[in-house]
UniProtKB/TrEMBL annotation:
This is TRXR3 reductase. Its cofactor is FAD. The keyword Disulfide bond applies. GO terms for biological process: cell redox homeostasis; cellular response to oxidative stress; glutathione metabolic process. It comes from Sylvietta virens. One of its GO terms (molecular function) is glutathione-disulfide reductase (NADPH) activity.
């Protein structure tokens, strides 16, 4: 039995209070601004210790690299904590990049979003007749910004591989129109993002009868 209980931020006994660095008393994490700067201007924090940020090693590496470049290389680039491709490696993988739907609604307003979604059936599942309409894909688009994709979610085989590829496109400003113009590779799971036509608001049936 594996129990995942998260991480502790062991910050209470390292002397932060001596120099006046504030921490979140509930979890010991350190609040920072968008440049990883604490309330004490000459103290920075990166990685899992950040309050409200993702606990992912590649995020910490990227944030540290960009911080060093800003401090010593004359750069102004900041770490993007929103468009981070992430996967949960459960037996049926879940991958996402960008905003979850609930957070997108808070940030942009429901009236400014269009959500496209569908169930799908991977080809390798059709021969054994396995679990039709178990896999799911969704994109969240900002109608006020040329239907730019601000959230992508997929539940299915190899979701991590699929998400990693689309993450680069999202960083480049991927829109629904560009997805529609992209020719899909058949039969792959990833091609489902090139054929989405049903919006969540329409209430139409999204079940699939074939791969």
């Amino acid at each position: 039995v594996l129990i995942a209980i998260g991480r502790d931020a062991c910050t209470r006994n390292i002397g932060l209070q001596t120099i006046g660095v504030k921490i979140n008393e509930k979890n010991g994490k350190v609040p920072v601004n968008d440049e990883e700067q604490t309330n004490v201007p000459y103290v920075y924090a990166i990685g899992d210790i950040l309050d409200g940020k993702l606990e992912l090693t590649p995020v910490a590496i990227q944030a540290g690299r960009l911080l060093a470049q800003r401090l010593y290389g004359g750069s102004s680039r900041k770490c993007d904590y929103i468009n981070v491709p992430t996967t949960v490696f459960t037996p049926l993988e879940y991958g996402c990049c960008g905003y979850p739907e609930e957070r997108a609604i808070e940030e942009y307003g429901k009236q400014n979003l269009e959500v496209y979604h569908t169930l799908f059936w991977p080809l390798e599942w059709t021969v054994p007749g396995r679990d039709n309409n178990t896999c799911y894909a969704k994109i969240i688009c900002n109608k006020q910004d040329n239907n730019r994709v601000i959230g992508l979610h997929v539940l299915g085989p190899n979701a991590g591989e699929v998400t990693q590829g689309f993450a680069a496109a999202i960083k480049c400003g991927l829109t629904k129109e560009l997805l529609d113009e992209t020719i899909g590779i058949h039969p792959t799971c990833a091609e489902v993002f090139t054929t989405m036509g049903i919006t969540k608001s329409s209430g139409q049936d999204i079940t699939q009868k074939g791969c």
